[in-house]
Amino acid sequence: MDVNEAIAQTLREEGVEYLFGFPSNPLFDTDSAEEAGIRKIITRQERTAVHMADAVGRLTSGDRVGAFACQHGPGTENSIGGVAQAYGESAPIVAIPAGYDLAKTDVDPKFNSLVSYQSISKSCEQLADPEAVGETMRRAFSSARNGRPRPSVVEVPKDVFYTDLEEEFEYTPSKARRSGPDPADVETTAEMLVDAERPVIFAGQGVHYAKGWDALKELAETLEAPVATSLNGKSAFPEDHPLSLGAASKSEPGQLTHFVREADVLFGIGCSFTDTAYGLTVPDGPEIVHSTLDPTDIDKDEVSSHSLVGDAKLTLEALVEELDGRVEADRGRADDVAAEIEEVREEWLAEWEPKLTSDDTPINPYRVVRELDEIVDKEEVVITHDAGNPRDFLAPFFEVTEPLSYIGWGKTTQLGYGLGLTMGAKLVHPEKLCINVWGDGAIGMTALDLETAAREDIPILSIHLSNFEMASYDTPFGGHWADVAEGLNCYGERVEDPDELGAAIERGIEKTEEGTPALIEVITSKETELSRPDLE
């Protein structure tokens, strides 16, 4: 057995089902991955392959780690943006880029993954010793799936791939471990939440990874407290629940801004409180209680009055247990809180109703979001956005009800990310409708991978908001993308009349059900108004 075959075996035993990437890498160039029972998926660009691996890790709550491989040199250079995005969004992947022959690793101008990936990976090693393949791969998977999920990189020099092992290879896969919070911190937090007059719970992506959805709901209903989520955490709490405030971002629901502004205690669970244009705008005033798996997030950007370190589900369950006996079965304020949420929500929606129902041409992009929100079966969908306006139009107005039905992101806002996420989502959930919403900038970055969707039988639905420019920048773009989709073996349809929009979306859905990827290109207005948080 050589190193290449041994790596394929480790992938299989770590539960990897798909290996995404681009040749030339021995894992693709030989039959080792397929012989190990792993499906190889070749994309048109390395970055998209990383995005697909990213989705696998995020949509399985880290139970499965996405795997990626690519060529030495230009392949690793092309993939670095995808790995950086996965790092920013805390996605568990293991990347196995090929390297130059061991003797040439540090010879200028060779691209050294070991050096170049260190700032955007949780762990980064070069496999120089063939006999260390098992322990090296186990460290990578253990690092990716334990603690805060993030990419692990193992660069394998080309000549090392083909080196025969001297000893019989046996592999013990990594294990996922969880740790709970200090009981004393739980007690203090419970006291603060019980004493608060207007507490707000802010749930992040850590709730998804911990599968803490039921415990979050139980805590909210016990405290009779409203729940907001981060964009990454969107769908951790059902947005049709009376206590839901929606997701915080650059563009967010009015009720969220209202309640955060008036909160006296803000309890963040499974979140980082990172200061970003695409996160929660924290006002001065509320005491912050911060619960996170990663202690380096505590007091990083927002200073907390109290903090807990531990798995989100274990923390939520511990708090629910601690509150038993401290809180009456019915505190008598749930109805009032829900009524206040609904009142503010209705006022906010009334302001936006003209855009959401607009009959103007070109079509208002908010009308597209409204049509999607009304047509899609929320129990059978996974939807994501791309960077910029597609994110800002979609996030406040597309209501989600099921955990992991929305892939939210935005910390590094890489254009073209949504397509790979959606293709990865469809592999994880072949029974669901998987949608990406993108604009002119994003489609120009990664649209050729629509051919990957067609070739690999991954029937996704792409909604292209086309206003022939990138956001509000004076950068004119052109193209007839429905025709491009048809040329890439997908279904393509262009829509210019708002009265035809709903039917076009439904035709796109029907095509995906028949097994064909579909692109609905909607000619939209140059909309610039966003539902921005105002905490002044």
Proportion of beta-strand residues: 15-25%
Q: How many whole angstroms does the radius of gyration measure?
A: 24 Å
Question: Which fold does the CATH topology of the largest domain refer to?
Answer: Rossmann fold
Mean pLDDT: 95
Taken from the alpha-carbon principal axes, the silhouette is globular
CATH class of the largest domain: Alpha Beta
Overview features:
536 residues, alpha/beta, Rossmann fold, 3 domains, six-stranded parallel sheet, 21 helices
Write the layout of secondary structure elements.
Layout: H1 3-13, E1 18-21, H2 26-29, H3 32-35, E2 39-42, H4 46-59, E3 66-70, H5 74-88, E4 93-99, H6 113-116, E5 123-126, H7 133-145, E6 152-157, H8 158-161, H9 183-195, E7 199-203, H10 205-210, H11 213-223, E8 227-229, E9 244-247, H12 254-262, E10 265-269, E11 287-292, E12 306-309, H13 312-323, H14 334-356, H15 365-375, E13 381-385, H16 389-397, E14 406-407, H17 417-428, E15 433-439, H18 440-446, H19 450-455, E16 461-466, H20 481-487, E17 491-495, H21 501-513, E18 518-523
Parallel strand pairs: 1-2, 1-3, 3-4, 4-6, 5-6, 7-8, 7-10, 8-9, 10-11, 11-12, 13-14, 13-15, 15-16, 16-18, 17-18
Helix pairs in contact: 1-7, 4-5, 4-17, 9-13, 11-13, 12-14, 15-21
Protein name: 3D-(3,5/4)-trihydroxycyclohexane-1,2-dione hydrolase
EC number: 3.7.1.22
Pfam family, one: TPP_enzyme_N
